[in-house]
Design goal:
The structure holds 2 protein chains of 2 kinds. Chain A is an all-alpha fold. Chain A is 70% helix and 0% strand. By secondary structure, chain B is of the alpha/beta class. Chain B has helices at 13-29, 80-95, 109-119, 133-138, 165-187, and strands spanning 49-51, 59-61, 70-75, 100-105, 126-129, 145-149, 155-160. In chain B, the strands form 2 sheets. Chain B has a 5-stranded mixed beta sheet with strand order 5-4-3-6-7. Chain B has a two-stranded antiparallel ribbon with strand order 1-2. Chain B starts with 12 loop residues before the first helix and ends in a 7-residue tail after the last helix. The chains are: A mainly alpha, B alpha/beta.
Chain lengths: 182, 194
């Protein structure tokens, strides 16, 4: 019985804590669900100018609250998303947009990663191609038995031509000693 | 092995890359990301219609701050740095005969009036922006912020944070002098056009 009372107490305390949190949430009224969805998206994509890395929806800063109110006002006035973004850009600059506008000074941001990826692919493909050529080389200039060896393993050789020749000589002498014994 | 020798410089590529990244990061240490470049520089001072701080029946508009090269200072009594800044503004207004207009930003009128009475009033006029709407049109994101406008009401410079004598001497004063000389050429007298 005591346990029940205790858990009921804890439950009611938690409930009260919940009410406290409710009191801090702003309530905005929108004419339809679509406008509300636009509000949510815009306040997610716009950065609070006072904060270094928080969007408008996630910030408690007074300026973020003011800008959320502006957002509601602009949406009620029937402004398009683009007009609203321009409104913010005109006042707070590129910083407010988490998705920056594509222009000369943001080309590095937009296309930099792609360029780096292309460079990486280029380097990797050249390295792979070179290795493949090296692997094929010994097949042409070397004796018949090493050739069969290679096709058996299927691996490209990591050895240079001269090393390959030395290796095949060693292998041959080994073969002959083996034959002597039998 | 000798055939690989000419390509030896390639071994240094990772080191070169590392040094470059270090350079960028080192530069980053001195940056102040909290100071945003203003989107308003080069644009006209926004249109507004707001009451005067000292007389709530008097409506002020853009023409109240335009006509001379001037500073427009955004301040509030809830802003501790503004208190630090205030004596410098008094000094600049007095010593250099600099017109300074105040925007009392999201503040209470009684507190603001008391502040000016106690600490002195460097402002020609104080605009009472209770809702912070002019602040938003100016791109204000905190106080204090100070805008430098030319005689035609174009915003020429923005300083975020406290204006002290160093900021005045090194950043604001040179621009003020340059703008004043331009104004003189254009108007003949350069100071009063109102």
């Amino acid at each position: 019985m005591k346990r029940h009372i205790r858990s009921a107490l804890i439950f009611s305390v938690l409930l009260l804590a919940g009410f406290n949190a409710v009191a801090e949430i702003e309530i905005h009224q929108f004419k339809d669900a679509e406008t509300e969805a636009r509000f949510v998206q815009l306040s997610d994509e716009l950065r609070c100018p006072k904060c270094q890395n928080t969007n408008l929806s996630g910030s408690d800063a007074p300026i973020a609250k003011d800008l959320r109110n502006q957002l509601v006002r602009l949406l009620k006035e029937g402004k398009t998303d683009q007009e609203i973004q321009h409104y913010m850009l005109d006042r707070y600059g590129d910083f407010v947009l988490y998705r920056p506008v594509v222009k000369k000074s943001t080309w590095v941001l937009w296309f930099g990663p792609l360029v780096l990826l292309l460079i990486g692919v280029l380097i990797a493909s050249r390295l792979i191609a070179r290795k493949a050529i090296k692997g094929r080389k010994p097949e042409t200039g070397i004796e018949a038995d090493t050739e069969t060896d290679q096709s058996e393993t299927g691996y490209p050789s990591a050895l240079t031509d001269s090393e390959q020749q030395r290796l095949s000589k060693l292998m041959q002498s080994n073969d002959t000693t083996g034959k002597d014994k039998t | 092995m000798t055939e690989k020798q000419p390509k030896r410089w390639k071994l240094f590529l990772p080191l070169i890359g590392f040094v470059l990244v270090c350079g960028f990061l080192y530069q980053g240490l001195r940056m102040e990301p909290s100071k945003l470049p203003s989107a308003l520089v080069g644009k006209p001072f926004p249109v507004f219609s707001l009451p005067s701080l000292k007389d709530d029946t008097q409506l002020l508009d853009r023409s109240a701050v335009i006509g001379e090269v001037a500073l427009v200072n955004v301040w509030a009594t809830w802003c501790p740095s503004c208190r630090v800044e205030h004596r410098f503004l008094n000094q600049i207004a007095e010593q250099f005969d600099m017109p300074i207009y105040g925007i009392n930003y999201k503040d209470e009128r009684a507190k603001a009036l008391q502040w000016l009475q106690k600490l002195g009033d460097p402002y020609r006029v104080s605009i009472f922006d209770e809702e912070g709407n002019l602040g938003i049109d100016l791109g204000v994101y905190g106080a204090p912020e100070t805008y430098l406008i030319d005689h035609e009401g174009m915003i020429r410079y923005k300083h975020v944070g406290v204006v002290d004598m160093d900021v005045w001497r090194d950043k604001l004063q040179p621009i003020v002098e340059e703008l004043r000389s331009i104004a003189v050429v254009q108007n003949g007298d350069g100071v009063t056009r109102k």
